[in-house]
């Protein structure tokens, strides 16, 4: 009965949703069950309404981008996913060398926009799939740079459905942000940029993509780097030194190309990936006394 009333309220607020949404069809990992519904919002007033409705019925929810770094359990999940569309897919630029990007903007779209307008700073995001909202949530980065280093402020909806603008203070840490714990939803952000030449930007992007494609299994069904790097050693190096490249549980396997990628060879299940993850963590700890932590977001 609660769900019937919930769906009615969403309809009353003219909010689009898709019931029994199959995660496996849209996840980069090609793994996952069916959630209650995917909800799509196009403006701030709608996301406020959605959060308050879901809170009213005590329903769990998660905001998704392109599901590129998420592993979702198989079967039926009592979850609602929210996707930010419309106004959240816009990019604005002012004369103060600050770009505003909505959380629904893809990393690729933002980089193309910046190259066209000769704005530098974020080329390290080249080849990292997903959206700006996801990049902020995870503090995405590469080559010693992180998106959190370029943020002025962030627009959010807190867990109670209240709109806030947060200055970039004590927000980010390595591959993490406070939003992973406080359940706030990132709506967009002001990002510091600088003027440079378009060809320089495009050259940097091409070089980074060439490096990524040479080292990473980009055509595989996976969620990118599965474990966070440690303070001293890359996770992939530790896993490879344990002789685990190519090791598999069912159709979940450690990539032969890069040991920090767990790939779905075809019919991998959630439990296959989780069992493989545990084997990796146990073997790395046994050999190096180092505890690996997942970088991938796990929903179960």
Could you please describe the fold and organization of this structure?
The structure is a single chain. It is globular and about 55 Å long. It has helices at 2-12, 44-56, 107-116, 132-138, 179-182, 198-215, 235-241, 270-288; strands at residues 16-22, 34-41, 60-64, 70-72, 76-84, 91-94, 98-102, 119-120, 141-142, 145-146, 151-157, 163-167, 172-173, 176-177, 185-192, 194-195, 221-225, 248-249, 252-254, 261-264, 297-299. It is α+β, with helices and mostly antiparallel strands and 300 residues long. The chain contains 8 helices and 21 strands. The protein folds into 3 domains: 2-84, Uridine Diphospho-n-acetylenolpyruvylglucosamine Reductase, domain 2; 89-200, 2-Layer Sandwich (Uridine Diphospho-n-acetylenolpyruvylglucosamine Reductase, domain 3); 219-299, Alpha-Beta Complex (Uridine Diphospho-n-acetylenolpyruvylglucosamine Reductase, domain 1).
Quick synopsis:
With 300 residues, this protein is of the alpha+beta class. The protein contains eight helices and 21 strands.
Task: Spell out the key features of this protein.
alpha+beta; Uridine Diphospho-n-acetylenolpyruvylglucosamine Reductase, domain 2; Uridine Diphospho-n-acetylenolpyruvylglucosamine Reductase, domain 3; Uridine Diphospho-n-acetylenolpyruvylglucosamine Reductase, domain 1; five-stranded antiparallel sheet; four-stranded mixed sheet; 8 helices; 21 strands; globular
